[in-house]
Design a protein that fits this description.
The chain has 466 residues and is α/β, with parallel strands linked by helices. It has 16 helices and 21 strands. The protein has a 6-stranded mixed β-sheet with strand order 16-14-13-19-20-21, sandwiched between helices. It has a 5-stranded mixed β-sheet with strand order 3-2-1-4-10.
């Protein structure tokens, strides 16, 4: 057996999976609470537990010690970024998409010229990385230079990734060189209407490995493993891309959506072009990336339970459950205060499932595009903004609220299009799958060197739920 150990150091739990590469199957899985003061403690506990599970199938401790160990992480707040561009709907949005696709949590996006108030706010936000864009290649250059000068006055030692007008990128870096480490990469929008976010994503990942892991104290884990290679959301997006597009010898699943409901946030990943499915529809806005990620900071089932109820509406949740709104708010407040909350009673279970359903429903609604009818002198025209997910046939759920539920499909129904919202471009009658072994992030790590094994592992582990 050729063994590889794949590790996800989360903010709450450290999950470890041992995969038999020869058979592309899960050999064992274990998780232990993450220990923020010294991640090695939680990691060592997880690896010890994994070793005990593997011993049951005849794998020795020496085999585990020799196994390659790869990790991703969302601990210590994950990768937190600020994106800066020229125009809100163009280069600023392109910068935001690059940051999200790299697995970051985008604290804020800025457009146009930064003000002193913006500078002070950035200092308070304390990002891990700043992504500075602005101007197409050969286009506007004054704004990105102005913004570099404003940033240069910050007493903030963070990396800056420069992904704007290439004509002035070296000049922009020169303004920042005394206080910041700078990385120049390709423009996220080299010309109007064309995105090129992948080079920026790769540089962000490089910076994450080189500097952020050290800054967050995660480098201690490298005493036990071979390295932390990417943020966890980037690993999930990588896994989704492999599963959607396929790999040599394996046909992909086609267009799909991944919903990851957590305690604090809900991530949605869509893999597919999202072009209009309705004939005669005109696209408005930036072209959508094939691999798109959004993260909703107010939609979660533990620390964000109260914000989720407020975002959806306590009256909506209470009507769904048949409870009084005051009871809904009180239980949400209790869960928000007790982040290690576990459902104990049948009503607790019902409420947990309701939170999972509404987090899924709201997050996929925000992620999906919309259509609207506009009347012109030549007649009505349908306008699409965002990604059309209506023909996406697979929705994959990951996260504890799904995995620990007896009825995950009921929560996943929130991802589907509803007759009451005909203009939302959510999936129509999709098939639901469950990442029951927490393997999507592990598969994304595995895909870096063993793409075929990662694909086979996902096909075996993702279970259809109804």
């Amino acid at each position: 057996m050729q063994l590889i150990v794949l590790i996800d150091i989360g903010s709450t739990f450290t999950k470890v999976s041992a995969v038999d590469l020869d058979e592309a199957r899960l050999a064992a899985h274990f998780q232990a609470p993450t220990t923020p003061r010294n991640v090695n403690d939680g990691l060592q506990a997880a690896l010890t537990g994994l070793g005990e599970e593997l011993a049951k199938v005849g794998v020795t401790s020496a085999d585990v010690q020799r196994a390659q160990k790869l990790a991703c992480s969302s601990a210590a707040g994950g990768l937190q970024m600020i994106a800066i561009g020229l125009v809100t709907d163009l280069t600023a949005e392109a910068a935001r998409q690059a940051a999200l696709g790299a697995g970051a949590r985008v604290l804020k996006t800025y457009a146009y010229e930064l003000t002193e108030a913006d500078r002070d706010e950035i200092a308070r936000l304390q990002p891990d990385i700043i992504l500075l864009a602005g101007g197409t290649d050969g286009g506007n250059y004054t704004t990105i230079i102005h913004n570099a000068k404003v940033l240069a006055a910050l007493d903030l030692k963070v990396p800056v990734v420069i992904a704007g007008n290439r004509s002035v990128a070296p000049e922009v870096a020169a303004y920042l060189k005394h206080n910041f480490s700078t990385y120049i990469t390709a423009n996220v929008m080299p010309e109007i209407g064309r995105l090129d976010v992948e080079p920026a994503r790769q540089v962000i990942r490089q910076v994450f490995m080189e500097t952020i892991v050290q800054a967050k104290g995660l480098s201690k884990a490298e005493e036990l493993i071979d390295g932390i290679f990417m943020p966890t959301p980037a690993a999930v997006l990588r896994a989704g891309t492999i599963l959607s597009q396929g790999i040599a010898g394996h046909t992909g699943w086609g267009d799909l959506v991944i919903v990851d409901v957590g305690g604090a946030t809900t991530d949605v990943h869509s893999l597919g072009s999202g072009q209009p499915s309705r004939a005669g529809t005109v696209m408005r806005g930036l072209p959508e990336p094939f691999a798109k990620r959004t993260v909703e900071g107010d939609l979660g089932v533990r620390v964000s339970a109260s914000p989720l109820v407020e975002a959806v509406g306590a009256d909506v949740v209470s009507s769904f459950l048949g409870w009084e709104p005051e009871r809904v708010r009180a239980l949400a407040a209790r869960i928000t205060a007790e982040q290690d909350f576990l459902p104990q009673t049948p009503d607790d279970v019902r409420f947990d499932q309701a939170l999972g359903y509404f987090a899924t429903k709201a997050a996929v609604s925000r992620h999906a595009g919309r259509i609207s009818e506009v009347y012109t002198p030549t007649g009505p025209v349908w306008i699409q903004e965002g990604k059309d997910l209506s023909q996406f046939k697979a929705v994959i759920a990951t996260g504890g609220v799904f995995i620990n539920s007896s009825a995950p499909a009921h929560m996943l129904a929130g991802a589907a299009k509803e007759a009451s919202n005909p203009f939302e471009l959510k999936p129509i009658d999709p098939t639901y799958y469950l990442d029951s072994d927490y393997l999507l992030a592990a598969a994304g790590l595995l895909a870096e060197e063993y793409g075929q094994a990662a694909f086979r592992l996902m096909e075996r582990s993702l279970k259809c739920v109804r």
